[in-house]
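Q: I have three molecules that I believe assemble together. Could you output structure tokens for the complex as a whole instead of separate predictions?
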Amino acid sequence: MTLNAQATEPGTPSDSQGMAIVARTQSQMVRRRFFRHRAALVGMIMFGFVIVLAFSSIGFAGIPGWWDKTYLDTGPLTNQGKPTLSLIPEFLGGTGIHLGEHPFGQDDIGIDYFALTMRGAQQSIIIAFVVGIVATLTGAVVGALAGYFRGRLEAVLMRLTDVMITIPVLVIAAVVGRMMGDSGALVLGVFLGLVTWPTLGRLVRGEFLSLREKEFVEAARAIGTRPSRIIFRHILPNTIGVIIVSATLGIASAVLLESALSFLGLGIQAPDTSLGQLISRYRSAMVVRPWLFWWPGMFIIMIALSINFIGDGLRDAFDPRQTRVRA
Amino acid sequence: MIVFIARRLVISFFVLLAATFIIFVLTALSGDPLEDLRQDNSPNKANKIADRTERMELDVPIPVRYLGWLGRIVRGELGVNRDGQDVAPLLGHALSATLQLVLAATVLAIVVGIVVGIVSALRQYSGFDYSVTFAAFVCFSLPIFWIAVMLKQYMAIEFNNWLKDPGIPPTVIGVLTLLGGLIFGALTVGDRKRRLLAFLAGAAISGALFTLLSVTRWFADPGFGLPLVLAISLAAAVGFTVLSAGLRQRGPLYAALAAALIGAVASQVLAPMLVDPTWLEIIGLALVTVVVCVGLGYGLGGFQRRQAITASVLTGLFTGAVIFLDHMLQAFASYSKVVRGRPISTIGARTPNFAGDFWQLNLDSAGHLLLPSMALILVSLATYTRYSRASMLEVMNQDYVRTARAKGLPERTVVVKHAFRNGLIPVTTLMAFDFAGVIGGAVVTENVFGWQGMGNLFIKGLREVDPAPVMAFFIVTGTAIVVFNMIADILYAYLDPRIRLS
Amino acid sequence: MTTPNVPIEPRKGDVHTYDIAPNVLDASGEVHVGLTLDAVRPPSEEEILKVDNLTVEFPTDDGVVRAVRGVSYSLREREVLGIVGESGSGKSVSSLAVMGLLPKSARVKGQILFRGDDMLKMSARKQRSLRGRKIAMVFQDPMTALNPVHTVGDQLAEAVLAHELMPRKSALARAKEMLDLVGIPQAEARLRSYPHEFSGGMRQRAMIAMAVINNPDIIIADEPTTALDVTVQAQILEKLLEVKDAVNAAIVLITHDLGVIAGMAHRVLVMYAGRPVEVGETDPVFEEPRMPYTAGLLGSIPSLENSGDRLRPIKGTPPSLINMPAGCPFSPRCPLADDTCRTAEPELAETDSGGHFAACHHWDRLAAVEDPTVFFRTESETKA
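A: Yes, here they are, computed for all three components at once.
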């Protein structure tokens, strides 16, 4: 992947005559391409909506939200716990657009299911982001060092990734989940991140291997630039596209990984909750009270899908091959 | 090549060894193996704890425990779980079911994924391409357990109910007709008129097909029969010839048609043998098919001998598969009676105490495999589709593809001979990663469908902080991954001569 | 002799210079090749290819790229026509259009007549039957133009089998003959080699063998030596001439290397911003350029003859093909430009007899001086 900064040199004589191509910096081009990507825009809006809804409704970290029920308190079971949310306006034969007492219904002991789902979404999003950030930072640093310095570090990284290929992510994550599941979302996320970074590390190493041979790096070395400066100022910015895209997709798969772990009973432990745990807890309710199954599922899909769309938009935006024309 | 494989084997062995150490240590550290006993209130609590401590060697350091485990493995023992049960018999049951599931899902995902991905790339920016891309994104974002539970509800319970009276309601036929038309239309490139014609043709064909299936109650007693087998194989013969050699010369076409014809005739001649065959016989028949087809291609191929052999072998094997499927379908009615009209199973890997002939047994495992594989396959399918699409798009822009066009080669040859093989090269590197992912998915899927499989062994062992079953699971899956990895490497070397020689 | 001499593709913003290998130029400024144009059979009068008012446009996200804007030329049997220009001048695109190899998104207009038949109006099948059989192409980068997963023999034989019905063995025999012809030693064994086992020069030879294997009437060579070592360049060009003579083909030679054209081409077509700006017999065009751009190009070549002099590069960059300035596209960089140049684009008009055409309002001012590159004098020269 090459990232051409297509800025023309300012001050060439032709500029004044309106002949030069409009100069755009790389970030401007990336932004332009990203916002032209329709799916990515939809993803952004969808993801923004879920985040705002999840964190503003029941509040977070002691800050109260606008929803008056919590995910821990039980209440009287009304209407067999059926959802009261209605989206069909009256003139179409529905009961009008309103939330009602329990928009997503109630679970079998009367906990408001909207609050429960929001709490689950919060936990899933936190874990996914922590996993994404930890894995990206670790992977990028190790990959960069291995790719730049080669030698023993590289050998270790390569063997480590070989080992990680042999262990399915879910398996190692399950073991980590068994260990850390009851220490809360943050800790679990950090530890999951620490076992999922090698893929990105390998990717970054590959980028570094090819970039370290490029002329601009050689030039920097020739004038005696410190390795740390070469790595962080010269090479890393050129791999930022790969890293961002892979981080985004990593977050999306972390959402699914976390929910699968919780489903297996190896993730977040009760009384706290997560989307996967909700599905696991109520999977036998599919026939009798399907909403207990549907809502968390819908939210997992919405979160994962929107992040995947954003990742795809970023990939297109960072990869100029898309619009290249042979002339 | 042998050196290459041997070196890979040695490396893989050490990698696997390192992985077992990591898993063992992490599992042993993952919790308190005596947790349940500590809450025990029975008078012999202390005894129980002492028992288990001794059995699991909880008083020795973990690395020493690992070495003990390793020593037993070398002697071929998998050890005992914390209750003193031998792990080997537990594994025995689980093994074949899980491997079947994982392999079925992987092979299906690879074949379908690559085909869809390539068609999608060749029809870039068509309706088909957009739909496939969107579907792939949805698949990436579906939690596997969620979709498994959904499948259980809708594909098994309601499908079985429907099979009692398998008429397709008119509205559903209408939807399917529309869908068929849309698929045909989306696959066609050209102006609006051409696409409209394709849409109408597709709609007409699927409409007629589903109406026929509904009216004849085909699903109650399915099967093809000789005429349909023949028709399908002959169509396949033409298809494979177009793909491998084109229709400019007759040789390859005749070879492929002959393969289809001989296959169909053979199915009648060999009917007595096919009443209750064994797998060994089926494999033997497949080999005979290949030999005969190579002969056909060689004899009839003319100037295009190589392509003729490809076309006739593919046709022969495809015809064999159709005949196989036909026999399975014909056993459906009797099988369905045995399982009281619920052929799609939701629990376990096989019907307990089921006995039947070859076809019924196969149908039984197929019925049990169907839904878990469907749930399991989605992510892999999406991955292979996206990957081969991207790879193919990349390859189609390469200079050598332009060179191939500049020679005046027909587009078919450009795609099949020059682009396809190069496009597959990066896909092989995906196989190893993906296979590990499928095994992870299998753990979840087995859980949903209540298989007493490998996944169950693993999860239960992990919950009880009991390394022996966890390690048994890992030894098997890890070896499978290593083997698969190696197949991918060999495939890579086969596809890319640059790797082969270095 | 280790001077790196591969011509550098100009980047936007660079001051563009043409540089060619001094070590392949002799005192007369011609390329040193063992076989010269005079030694091969001369062109006949019969016209085999006529390109008439060809335009090619690519719709992109940023607007329509007008890559080729009205190119016309003709090619006689056995003739070598050189097309020169910077990257982005449309020289490659116009020849890909002749081959029918442009991406589907390209909008192609005009006429491309091969022996009187318009290739743009032909059925895809008929066009394909000409491609590789009557009109063959040698690409710029032999490193990527051969398929890495098939043997060289297979790729050569395939070119024959695409157009002729014959056993594979005979096609391979023909392939061996061709490898012999282009001077690849041990041709028989080399048929079974893969491209990565060949050096760059050998691969380009194999590409030439592939181009002539069906005895084509026209070989389009798109910068065939740009990606090669300087020492190999001359050999490849010589081989190209030799092979052309062996199969009696005409050559369209696309390059940005004026030295190559001087030694290899009967006639030359200079392109700028998607249009031809000067056409004519090679010698008159190089000796008496009638378009400032051609003069500028000639001024930027280092040569042994005037090795003490300063180079006289053309300042500025070629225009964007999306927002073409009004008037003559060269006017912003042209020392002769005045208001006429900035408002009206000059047509290609005959300047001298013998088919010398140029598109310039002020060609007579070039004709009036001894050394037309004088207009591109650098400031330091002017002061001195």
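A: One point stands out. Residues 41-322 of chain A form a domain with the MetI-like fold fold (CATH 1.10.3720.10).
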